[in-house]
Amino acid sequence: MQFQKTPGWLDWYQGPSQPKFQLPAGAVDAHCHVFGPGEEFPYAPERKYTPCDASKQQLFALRDQLGFERNVIVQATCHGADNRALLDALLHSDGKARGVATVRRDISDEQLQAMHDAGVRGVRFNFVKRLVDFTPKDELMEIAGRIAKLGWHVVIYFEAVDLPELWDFFSGLPTTVVVDHMGRPDVSKPLDGPEFALFLQFMRDNPNVWSKVSCPERLSLTGPKALAGEQAAYRDVVPFARRVVEEFPDRVLWGTDWPHPNLKDHMPDDGLLVDFIPHIAPTPELQHKLLVDNPLRLYWPEQVKG
Ligand SMILES: O=C(O)c1cc(C(=O)O)oc(=O)c1
């Protein structure tokens, strides 16, 4: 099937630079996607955008170039609850990728088990209005109860202003809960203001909640952009991400977010995004937890000793 990209769509950056920051051995890119290719894995009829293709081979090439050892591939909303592209990527990764799927309540136990065997370890619940029509909370809670039995976790994507309304639902989830992109703080607001304080409180009150400290390129309002060798990109996001890493060093994950769906302003050089990491995780110990220990504990627990 031929797909027409959403007008204004920015394609992922070709030929990223070699990062100056040397990733620790075993580093995991814990948030990235595959898109199609549409001819093989058609985009879902209910999607809110049509992306460029971004194949598993292209993702694995990026992984190798940047110096990551593994990926966690997250089902992108343009594929709805059709997880074929994700499962295909996992099955062709030589065990170097695990996944987060999107499922509906009609999924069978056999299908869940087949996903588990392919490497799925979580489901994603999305509350961002421009990306999905919401699934009712009772359906999500039912799914959470079922996947908890497989030892999976729930990944949630929402915007900071919606946290108060979603707080009780999130707190009632029976699994580990991973927040995408720090719950999308408005970084023009003060670091110590009520909105971000609420997010930190949410993590303090719920020790099962983790956060991805990813997507500075989405959150930044001032830049500078991760392009043209910039070594101090997205400075306005740094204090927010660093605060989360320093307060919750054992509950943070990092990912490129390649191929960066829906960016409107610019497409970052992924090599320079890697160079952003030491600004938010300033010590080798914090870097090792963020990039190796934490993602292994969540996605490859059978390989963690002790
Ligand atoms: O902010 C976004 O547009 C976005 C979209 C998706 C998706 O469509 O799955 O995933 C992300 O992590 C971020």
TrEMBL record:
<feature type="domain" description="Amidohydrolase-related">
    <location>
        <begin position="28"/>
        <end position="299"/>
    </location>
</feature>
<protein>
    <submittedName>
        <fullName>Amidohydrolase family protein</fullName>
    </submittedName>
</protein>
<dbReference type="InterPro" id="IPR052358">
    <property type="entry name" value="Aro_Compnd_Degr_Hydrolases"/>
</dbReference>
<dbReference type="InterPro" id="IPR006680">
    <property type="entry name" value="Amidohydro-rel"/>
</dbReference>
<dbReference type="Pfam" id="PF04909">
    <property type="entry name" value="Amidohydro_2"/>
</dbReference>
<dbReference type="InterPro" id="IPR047874">
    <property type="entry name" value="GLI/LigI"/>
</dbReference>
<dbReference type="InterPro" id="IPR032466">
    <property type="entry name" value="Metal_Hydrolase"/>
</dbReference>
